[in-house]
Structures are given as C-alpha cells and as structure tokens.
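Action item from last meeting closed. Structure (203 res):
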C-alpha cells in the first residue's frame, strides 16, 4: 500500500529545548538529580489533567511551586527558565513543507491547551494538513483513538501513514494500529527513514 501521509510529534522531534545550563541550575536549586527537571513538571497532577484539557499551564506551575515551596516570583522565574529558548529543527520543517502536496502531513502531539497559539509560527496550516493536540481531543498518546482521529481527518488508512515520535510507547501505539512508525534519532535520520519507507511502499 502506497504511503500517502507523514505524521510527526512536536516536542523532541520538531523542537528541542537546549537550555541545559538553566535546567541544571534549577535542578541544583531544588535538590533534584541531574536531568530530572522535566520530570518535576511532567509528573505533576496538573500536567496529567492539562494534557487532556482539564487544567491550564498556570495550574502546572502552581503545582510545581507548591511541591518545592517556591514563592510567586520564583514560580514565574522557573516557568520562564523551563522552556528557555526552544530550538526548532528548521531544516526538518522545511522537509515537511517539501513533502506537500505529494503527501499529506500532520501533527499528533501530547500538548497543553495553550500550545496551538504558542507555536503557531511553526506548526500551522501552511505546513500541516491536520494538527491534533491531546488537550483539544481529551486523549493522549498512545491511546489508539488519537491516532485514528488524525488518520480519519487525513483520509488515509494506517498502512498509508508514517509516524515519527521520540517516545517508544507512542511509536509502539502507532505500530499496533498498522502505522509505519519509528523513533526519532536526528533530522537527517528522520528524512532518510521517511524516504526509505516511501520507496519501500511505492507502487
């Protein structure tokens, strides 16, 4: 079956947070182990609710502040430092643009309700035919429904789609549905694997 669509995760694939010094400083300040600042945020109850649209980003920062005893000012400083200066994979986004109109393109991302507006300059209808955010759907990866909704909106079957994600559980969730899914490595590796799959399943 011919490949007709290519789908991407956002965080860890199309954009990366490379402000490591800021994270290390906050880890030391909060007494956290090296490389665990993300866990301090993403393990909060508010984050679990936010990913399905039941809490806001402000709720998450407040959860973090309460857990670590931060003042309002420290909470705001933490929130600003957490994302730092996110680095978008510009060449990979240009590759996504180049896939159209031969292929449909889409995003499936576990994301907060504020995400669509926050990253509209990079993830928008000019680049992607379909954009699916978990907070807007009320479902997170790897629940099969979030993949099937994206495929239905694209008008393609699972075997006609490729999906790239940086988390193994999300790749495995897509594979179970019959989507040609693989783990992110680097932009060049992603392009090579997409092109390989396109050629492998070409008519």
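Sequence:
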């Amino acid at each position: 079956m011919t490949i007709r669509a290519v789908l991407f995760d956002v965080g860890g694939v199309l954009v990366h947070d490379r402000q490591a010094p800021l994270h290390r400083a906050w880890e030391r300040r909060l007494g956290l182990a090296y490389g665990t600042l993300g866990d301090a945020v993403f393990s909060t109850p508010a984050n679990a609710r936010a990913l399905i649209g039941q809490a806001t980003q402000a709720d998450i920062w407040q959860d973090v502040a309460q857990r670590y005893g931060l003042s309002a000012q420290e909470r705001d400083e933490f929130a600003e430092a957490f994302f730092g200066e996110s680095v978008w994979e510009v060449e990979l986004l240009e590759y996504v643009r180049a896939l159209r109109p031969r292929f449909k393109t889409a995003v499936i991302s576990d994301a907060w309700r504020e995400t669509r507006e926050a990253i509209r300059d990079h993830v928008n209808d000019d680049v992607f035919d379909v954009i699916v955010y978990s907070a807007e759907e009320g479902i997170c990866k790897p629940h099969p429904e979030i993949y099937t909704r994206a495929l239905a909106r694209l008008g393609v079957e699972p075997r006609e789609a490729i999906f790239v994600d940086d988390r193994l559980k999300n790749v495995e969730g897509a594979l179970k549905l019959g989507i040609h899914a693989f783990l992110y490595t680097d932009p060049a590796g992603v392009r090579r694997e997409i092109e390989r799959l396109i050629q492998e399943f070409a008519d």
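Note appended to the action item: The first strand starts at residue 5 and ends at 8.
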